[in-house]
Amino acid sequence: MPSALIGRGRDREFTSPVGPVWPGAPMPLGARFRVGPDGVAGTNFALWAGGAERVELCLFDAEGRESRSPLSELTHEIWHGFVPGVRPGQRYGFRVHGRWDPWTGARWNPAKLLLDPYARAVDGEFGLPPEVYGHVRDWPEQHVADTVRDDRDSAPYVPKGVVVHDDAPDDEWADDRRPKTPWADSVIYELHVRGFTRRHPGIPEELRGTYAGLAHPAAIEHLVKLGVTAVELLPVHQFAHEDHLLRRGLKNYWGYNSIGYFAPHAAYAASGTAGQQVGEFKRMVRALHDAGIEVILDVVYNHTAEAGELGPMLSLKGIDNRGYYRLQGDARRYADYTGCGNTLHVVQPHVLRLITDSLRYWVTEMGVDGFRFDLAAALARSMHDVDMLSPFLAVIAQDPVLRRVKLIAEPWDVGSGGYQVGAFPPLWTEWNDRYRNAVRDFWRGALPDVRDLGYRLSGSSDLYAWGGRRPYASVNFITAHDGFTLRDLVSYERKHNEANGEGNRDGSGDNRSWNCGTEGEPAEPSVAALRRRQLRNLLTTLLLSTGVPMLVAGDEFGRTQRGNNNAYCQDNEISWVDWGLLDEPGWRALFDLTSRLIALRHAHPVLRRRAFFSGRAHSADGLRDLAWFTSRGTEMTERDWYAPAATLGMYLSGRDIPGRDARGEPVEDDSFLAVLHAGDRAEGFVLPGEPWAREYEVVVDTGQEAQEAAPDVVHPAGGTVTVGARTVLLLRVRT
Length: 735
Description:
This protein is an alpha/beta fold. The longest helix has 20 residues, at about 525-545. It starts with a strand and ends with a strand. This is Glycogen debranching protein GlgX.
């Protein structure tokens, strides 16, 4: 096997040492500015590097000159030292010495400057020239390239950690600053910090694409008008771009390629990257809180940007490859449950500590209100299998900080047995892709019957009615960042990802979409009108369903990615929200309907129940909390549930809502009848009579283009109402 070393014998110029290094303390990990012995200000550096033989601290001045000194103190596998005079703004990194033996998973290479896993801020951007790889990236025999060590210095080509001022007292984010919206009352809005603000005309140009831009009143005004209670931010941890994208002149736009779990992504900062990004992020959170909006982070703790054995050496791989990553029996190779080349070894205590320390930091010092965990099943694996008693889930459940925030699982990974929808324990909510699939299939006419739709509309009790879980365990969504936008879902049947440079092979082919008869845009007026109607149907269905609805930024006014269903590398107009759509009457009307539906949801507890329906009568008149009706006005029978159908009536009783309000009083509300009709022709629907209602008032009719106010239409119970082709009718019960 090859054993050659590339680049030996020429180090980059540096001055050594950095100055006196006092013993310091092993905790907390990372770089922490403080007052040391004898009142001397300086910074304590501490790095866990379990199998390392030596660790060097590297400091960089404004011209990029490097100074090195060893951290000679070792306590419980943590290398540490206190450096007097090192103040906030100082850039730094580590070089870690040890064996180079890839066959056993040992990949130490001190030629590579490594980012501190606990760095609070990162200055600079990751490029991926050959020098940042621990092995010889371009070795002629690629099948053994990862075994050939590259000794060229990577310091000129990688970002550095930044010492920041720890100015966040424990009470900075006191509970009264947080909206603390109950789960059942939540409406989540998934957005990308850069994409949401990049083209907003009301945000100053210099703030667009930044945390400060999202904190701007113009951005917050839209969120408040829409009525959402939380923003779910696509990854804002410091991330790197993949080599295959950089070679094609593209970048990782979504950010699911984390490398710094404590650092706000520097490229989203308007104020600077020498630590200023930390304060800017905090001000953004505070501005959103002041508007009553929670902040949820989409976090990627399942893998890092270092990829597999042929990936770069940026941080953990060079600190202790075997300690941080899951390796196969052949320790040269990585166990990959994520599809991204590596998987963090969460069973290891120091890895679990890294993740939980990071989570607590974002809650207690950065003010966030919850997390959505990318590929959460990978975090729940014990040694191999997904285990709902795994160390990760157990630690979260008992943590006094983390068990109080919102926890959302993407309940799958790409490994064997990784699909775990409905399996996560109490405290957790889940992205419910079965909801997405059922609603998409119903409105495109692809459901064989309406059994699955009934479960999804009423809170997915078949998935979540166990172990004390509630209907809000289901995060209902029709679209997400990954896939078609809502407008593209009704405009394209095939993905159009040519701009990604992968021959349209990337992205899912299972879109469950319907183009309404014409592929793409523009389309003739009748097709365009049908598409807008389908959008109204989809949004109305989502916002009337029991569970927690999640919208994607721009779907409420017709954002399009021109058929690209995998725009992860499109940092341009394909992905950025086009705010000019709000100036077009058709798309403005869609926004108005969406905001009215959200307001309706906030006003009526029957639409955001905290307990599952029983389906049983609670009074002598036989009225039940939930009932299902055919178009004949009769209650659904077992046979009806199994028969092909394009129409379903759902009756929600406001008289039988379990639980009490904050004053201990019974919760009472209006009752509603929702009629969903996906057929291509108008259908007569017989309105149920006593005891269900005496008459019905139309609240929403998606057959109408503009719905600035509730239609002033009342129908008698027992009569027949005509439901237009592909329409939702929402009727308020009058008794």
